[in-house]
Amino acid sequence: MTMRTRIKICCISSSDEAELAIRAGADALGLVGAMPSGPGVIEDDAIQAIARDLPAAISAFLLTQECSADAIMDHVSRCQVTTVQIVNHIAPRELQRLREGMPALRIVQVIHVEGADALQLLGEYEEFVHSFLLDSGSPTAPIPLLGGTGRIHDWSVSAEFVRRSRRPVFLAGGLSPGNVAEAIRLVRPYGLDICSGVRTAGRLDGVKLASYIAAVQARDAELYGGTIGHADERGASPG
Questions:
Q1: In the chain, what are the domain boundaries?
Q2: Within 10 A of 224 (CB to CB), how many other CB atoms are there?
Q3: Below-50 pLDDT ranges, the chain
Q4: Protein fold of 6-224
Q5: What's the CA gap between 134 and 113, in Å, rounded?
Q6: Backbone torsion region of residue 25, taken as left when φ is above 0, otherwise alpha when ψ lies between -120 and 50, otherwise beta
Q7: 66 vs 90: CA distance, rounded Å
Q8: Under a CB-based contact definition with an 8 Å cutoff, are residues 236 and 58 in contact?
Q9: N- or C-end of the chain: fewer Cβ atoms within 10 A?
Q10: What pTM was computed for the model?
C-alpha cells in the first residue's frame, strides 16, 4: 500500500464546511468544544449533529479542554463521537481511567511543543493513547492557548518526537499551503492538522483548502512515489 500523509481539517463549524472539507480530500475533521480561547468553538449539539451525518470513512475528532476522565467521558457522551482530542496536558492516570471507562474510544493526546521538554511527555502518555498531535499552544499562559494559534513551533523537536513515538503523530501549528511540503519533509508525520491556514475571515476557504491539499499530495508523490485517492483507503482513525 502506498504511504501518504493523512489530512485533518479542524475548526469545522457547520455541515457545509464538513462537506467542503470532505470533497477536497480530508480524512478527518476537528470539532471544537468549549475552550478558554481560540477559533472554531461550537456547541455540543452542533458537534453531535455534524458528527452524526459524516460518511463512515471520515473520523470526527472532538476537541475537549476537560482534564478528568469523568468529564471527558461526559463530553464524549454528549457529542456522540468515537475519537477525542485532549488539548490539555492531563495526568496520565486520567488517561488510564479513560481507557478503562470507554475502551472503544480513540484517544488523541495533544502535546504543545514549547521546547525540547515536550519529548518527556511521550513516555508518560504513550501507553494510554492511540495517537499524538503536536501543536503550538501555551497551556500555562494566563489565558491558556490550546490550539488554533497559527504559530509554527520547533519542527526539529517534532521530528524527534515522530522518530521516537510508537504511535501515529499528527502535526499542527501554523501550517499553510506555502509551508506544508517542508513540514512533511522535515517531520514525516502520520498526519497533518490545520485550522487557520485554510480560512479567510474565519470561514473555510475552498481555494486555500484545495491549494493546501494539492501541496500535501505533491510532496507525498515526491517522497513516497504517489498517493492514495480519496475513494480508496482513508486511514482516518488514529492508531
A1: 6-224
A2: 14
A3: 1-2, 227-239
A4: TIM Barrel (3.20.20)
A5: 6
A6: left
A7: 9
A8: yes
A9: N
A10: 0.89
Residue 197 Rama label (left phi>0; alpha psi -120 to 50; beta): alpha
Q: Which grid cell sits at 198?
A: 485554510
**pLDDT, tens only, 137-166:** 666 656 655 566 567 888 999 999 999 999
Calpha distance 180→198 (Å, rounded): 12
HEC profile of the chain: CCCCCEEEECCCCCHHHHHHHHHHCCCEEEEECCCCCCCCECCHHHHHHHHHCCCCCCEEEEEECCCCHHHHHHHHHHHCCCEEEECCCCCHHHHHHHHHHCCCCEEEEEEECCCHHHHHHHHHHCCCCCEEEEECCECCCCCCECCCCCCCCCHHHHHHHHHHCCCCEEECCCCCCCCHHHHHHHHCCCEEEECHHHEECCEECHHHHHHHHHHHHHHHHHHHCCCCCCCCCCCCCCC
Length of the chain equals 239
- Amino acid (1-letter code) at residue 105: L
